[in-house]
Amino acid sequence: MPDILNFDKFFLPVDTWISALVDWLVGNFRPQFQMIKWPVDITLTGIDSFLNWLPPIIILIFIVLFAWKFSGKAVAIFSLISFLLIGYMGLWSETMTTLAMVFSAVIFCIVVGIPLGIIASRSDGFAASIRPVLDTMQTTPAFVYLVPVVMLFSIGTVAGVIATIVFSMPPIIRLTNLGIRQVHPELIEAALAFGCTPKQVLLKVQVPLAMPTIMAGLNQTIMLSLSMVVIAALIGAGGLGVPVFQGLNSLQVGLAGIGGISIVLMAMVLDRITQSLGELGKR
Amino acid sequence: MDEKNAIVQVKNLYKIFGPNPERAFSLIEQGKGKAEVFEETGLTIGVKDASFEVYEGEVFVVMGLSGSGKSTLVRMLNRLIEPTSGHVFLEGKDIAEMPMEELIQIRRDKMCMVFQSFALMPHMTVLQNAAFGLEVSGKSVKEREERGMKALEQVGLGANAHNYPKELSGGMQQRVGLARGLAVDPTIMLMDEAFSALDPLIRTEMQDELLKLQEQTQRTVIFISHDLDEAMRIGDRIAMMEGGRIVQVGTPEEILKNPADEYVKAFFRGVDPTNVLYAGDIASDKFVTIVDHKGEGLRTALEKINRAERDYGYVLDRRHRFKGIVSIDSLKQVIDSGTEDAKLSKAFLDKVQTVKSSAHLQDALPFISDVPWPVPVVDEDNVYKGAISKNIFLTTLHRKAE
Ligand SMILES: Nc1ncnc2c1ncn2[C@@H]1O[C@H](COP(=O)(O)OP(=O)(O)OP(=O)(O)O)[C@@H](O)[C@H]1O
Ligand SMILES: [Mg+2]
Q1: Record: contact B123-A191, CB cut-off 8 A
Q2: Which domains does chain B have, with CATH numbers?
């Protein structure tokens, strides 16, 4: 047997390298990483305490009206029933926390992801270089994120939201890029012929026309963030993940079950509503 | 003619597509054509050494076949395509060398463009589309809506202001395209095959619309077309393009009377009237016909043709279906070879082709010009309808051209 294929002799200590890399990052850049935490923390705490402060009746009314306006009567009724059920199962407060985590994560995904998508649509080089990064972000198993996140950001809900942001950002970047690239070149030519600056072309033509595609990206981002937000309970994040993991640890099927049901109901409501937001942009 | 004021002057304008376009220039100097330059360098000549002037208030039509460089030329006038070299003077200022901010200002105030594909913004209402140029240049909402509405009314679409473009027919959409241009009150309108995507009836309607608008306000219009009828109808002057070059500029009459070369001639011949007439329309029945039956021999046929003072005879069967052509020479040849009792078909000419009476004259032209004899015209059942000689063909053209 050729020596080169002797796996005992030739061994790449990749695990050690990764540890060393993360250790080095933690050792030298922890303050910087803690700084990233800060805006996330403020956003999250703000939304969370606001949602938990509002009386449920206000939230219910708002959800129903919102669903009615954008998705019609059926979705409005479905949303009402879902959220009532969640309340009756005793998980209202956890659901609000999860909602706050999803909203915070999605806000950061939008604020960072849409500009990145726009840059990618204007530069083939940039688009090609972020592609493997996005692939990695999207395919790395959710659990694998958690270790470095804990080391860099310690545990808790904020760290959970940061892991969620990383996990759920790729679709909105990808679809913003795609949506803008799909705008017909003749429309861009027309815009230029009437004296648009490049910025005007972007804001008056490209982004509005890419909106349905961007909304589809937003929908995917929300769905991914919902799944991650639950897993984040593993590193001490609050919300609906908590009853699920408590139920798992103590073999209380019922507890895990109501946690699961609440997550599914919430996912369905968010999915229907954001989908119709996308339809709206299609005109 | 009174004094003409050149508002646009194009001087030695070139566009060469591809990396390092300078490589093409030395080849062009050696007199190499578009195909050769492409073969040697991979560069495409879009426009080659174009120089012309457009006068204030005229409709200037640029005409040529597909790929002749019309779109490239017109896009260099507002620099949607960067010229490789040369100058475009608008009211004395060189657009080709202007900084971007100044160029954007000119696009906003002085020029507008109407596109073949309409290129309306699907996310905006008809009114918002019409006011697009004004929005871009930062006019107030009130002014935008007023001027947009006025432009829409000019093209008869006031009632559709709050529709979306896709709710309108093609002709109406292009009216919106026109209104979008008119709303900015430009000095120059660039129209790239603006009416080509419309069906013929609507197209004429739009041409009339344009002429009507011209009567109200004399604008300078640079209109791209590949349709001669359109060019003659709306054009004060026409520029003919071929392979990136401008081969002739003049009024329609001038070009018609003195075509600069074979290409221009062919273009004018190729479109009208050959496009509207069919072979059956001009076939003449004055040629000698010989019905092939027992009593008809080579000599009687020869006799008939001679008596009519013609050179050819058209041989038909009893149901007047076309069988072939004999000529005085071919008949004599067969007779001289001593086979006097031979069948008429022995004297048939080779390579005889017929033209269907339903064929466009344009399609019939190659057959007519290729052979010395008048080309026989037949119907669907191969029944002889007459023949077209070169002479008939040319007089038809001449009559139409006048
Ligand atoms: N972006 C481009 N890159 C390379 N070659 C181009 C480009 N645009 C046009 N060309 C070439 O330049 C030549 C002129 O094209 P242009 O579009 O100006 O022709 P046209 O007269 O407008 O034809 P049509 O009637 O089909 O619109 C063609 O040979 C075309 O292939
Ligand atoms: Mg063209």
Answers
A1: no
A2: 57-72+98-275 (3.40.50.300), 280-401 (3.10.580.10)
